[in-house]
Amino acid sequence: MSGTTVLTEKWPVLGRHEQAAAWLTVWTDLGRAPRTIDAYGRGLAEYLLMCEREGVDPVAANRAHVAVYVRELTSRPHRRGANVVSIDSGAGLANATIQQRLVPVRLFYDFLMEEGLRESNPVGRGRYTPGRRGGGQQRGLVPRLTKLPWIPGEQQWLRILEVARREPVRNRVMLALAYDAALRREELRSLRTDDVDPAHRTLRIRAETTKNRLERVVPYSASTGVLLSDYLVHRATISRARGPLFLSESRRNHAQPLSLWTWSKVVRRIALASGVERFSTHTTRHLCLTDLARMGWEVHAIAAFAGHRHTDSTLQYIHLSGRDLAEKLARGMEHIHAWRIQALTRTNDAGEAGR
Q: What whole-number distance in Å separates Cα of residue 273 and Cα of residue 279?
């Protein structure tokens, strides 16, 4: 069964629009990750349902119709409570979620333009246009809010560790590697036994498991190595076969590869038990990269460690650590201090000369 067929079964509205199904088939054939295709399918399906409710042909829809969809997103209740989507709003989906919902809609209209079915794309990108007033910046439909990643404070982290110590060895080593090597959830869950090099204490993060298809080799600490050795002994009691490193120990899926959802549930349980509800599967990555910035790592070194294709993503950790601001403040204060001393000295000298 093809990925597109699965999505049309999950979202029947996609099957009612021939061009939508064709667009998804193209992306599936191009080898996009299943989770990406699923996200595209969901976002486009929600938009198409809005078009059907409004009696609008999506192929002929204009910017005003897309704006109706945006209005729905900004007023839709979020399952975790209200989220700020603009300076003066306090309801609706998070700004980043709205941006994600608009991506498949924008790409769908790009496809229609390429097929000669439209002349323009009603979803703005927010791009630089020479000659425009105000610096030539054309705004997208929804202003993009850039927020720094959340990381726990020292006391919050200690509470998380206290709860984590009571977890089985598999969960403890997964948390240790997630922080030590700044791994994304999919990268951690997809590790295989032959990705581990105990002699050099390194992990190979395969390209197909990464967000941007960049393979990398990352180190882990000696203390994590000891915990990993303990887990490998434990793993041998579940399965001696080589393959996925982390295995399920439940009765239903015994010795099967651990799923993303199981790992997410483990982390959520730790978050609730520690009282740090914002703790998630991505928090350890954010914390590690911020700590590297605090230690003075250069931005390109952090980018290589994190597997970022561009340093733009890495810079947020430099900003979050406050390293650059602290250095600039120190240099500025040193200059001000020197200036004040010089001023006081000149005053004293002038006083001596006047006696």
A: 11
Extract the runs of DSSP E, i.e. beta strands, from 155-263. 196-197, 202-205, 216-219
Non-local (6+) Cβ contacts of 321 within 8 A are: 290, 291, 293, 294
- Between 63-75 and 95-114, two packed helices, what is the crossing angle to 10 degrees? 160
User: From CA 179, how far away is CA 289, in angstroms rounded?
Assistant: 9
**pTM strictly above 0.85:** no
E strand residue ranges, 155-311:
196-197, 202-205, 216-219
Q: Which domain holds residue 61?
A: 3-114
Residue of higher predicted confidence among 302 and 143: 302
- Tell me how far apart the alpha carbons of residues 308 and 86 are, in angstroms, rounded to a whole number: 28
Secondary structure letter of residue 259 according to DSSP: P
Q: How many domains are there within the chain?
A: 3
> How far is it, in rounded angstroms, from Cα 36 to Cα 30?
12
In eight-state DSSP terms, residue 192 is B
Reported confidence tier of residue 4, pLDDT bands at 50, 70, 90: low
Do 195 and 277 belong together in one domain? yes
- Structure tokens belonging to residue 313: 């993503």
Structure tokens at 19: 């061009």
Quick check: 118 and 107 in contact, CB under 8 A?
A: no
